[in-house]
């Protein structure tokens, strides 16, 4: 269970969302509509600000990207890497290998 946001992706979020150092970007699990994911019928949304308890996070360029403790189940069997590709961000879900 890992969240990784590349520096280039973080810079894209900063520019697109007018973020300042110290701000939070929450990945929110949704039932319909949003960013496609590895979970059938579930999508991701984005929210600026800190809400609830942080479950999984990555701090890049002074911005905390996170899943709340309530939504951390979403990455239980996956690692999520957020990258910048072709002037947009992409979300890459990799299945975690069993130990």
Features:
globular; 3-stranded mixed beta sheet; 1 helix; 8 strands; Hypothetical Protein Aq_1857, Chain: A; 99 residues; 5-stranded mixed beta sheet; mainly beta; single chain
Detail the topology: elements first, then pairings:
Blueprint: E1 2-5, H1 7-17, E2 24-30, E3 35-36, E4 43-48, E5 54-60, E6 63-68, E7 78-85, E8 88-95
Parallel strand pairs: 1-7, 2-6
Antiparallel strand pairs: 2-4, 3-4, 5-6, 7-8
Order of helices and strands: EHEEEEEEE
CATH hierarchy, class: Mainly Beta
Shape-level CATH architecture: Sandwich
* Low-pLDDT windows of residues: none
Which percent bin holds the helix content? Answer: 10-25%
Shape: globular
How many separate domains?
1
Estimate the mean pLDDT confidence: 88
CATH topology group: Hypothetical Protein Aq_1857, Chain: A
Which class of secondary structure composition applies to the elements?
mainly beta
Would you summarize the structure shown here?
It is built from one helix and eight strands; from the N terminus they run βαβββββββ. By secondary structure, the protein is mainly β.
Can you characterise this structure?
- This protein has 99 residues and is mainly beta.
- It has a single domain (2-95), classed as Hypothetical Protein Aq_1857, Chain: A (Sandwich), CATH 2.60.300.
- It is 11% helix and 48% strand.
- The chain has one helix and eight strands.
- It has a five-stranded mixed sheet with strand order 3-4-2-6-5.
- A hairpin with a 6-residue loop joins strand 3 and strand 4.
- The protein is globular, with a radius of gyration of 13 Å.
- The model has no long low-confidence stretch (mean pLDDT 88).
């Amino acid at each position: 269970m890992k969240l990784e946001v590349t520096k280039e992706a973080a810079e894209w979020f900063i520019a697109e969302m007018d973020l300042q150092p110290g701000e939070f970007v929450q990945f929110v699990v949704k039932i319909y509509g949003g960013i496609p994911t590895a979970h059938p019928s579930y999508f991701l949304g984005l929210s600026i600000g800190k809400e609830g308890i942080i479950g999984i996070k990555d701090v890049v360029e002074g911005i905390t990207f996170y899943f709340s403790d309530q939504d951390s189940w979403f990455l239980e069997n996956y690692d999520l890497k957020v990258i910048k590709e072709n002037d947009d961000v992409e979300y890459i879900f990799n299945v975690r290998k069993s130990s």
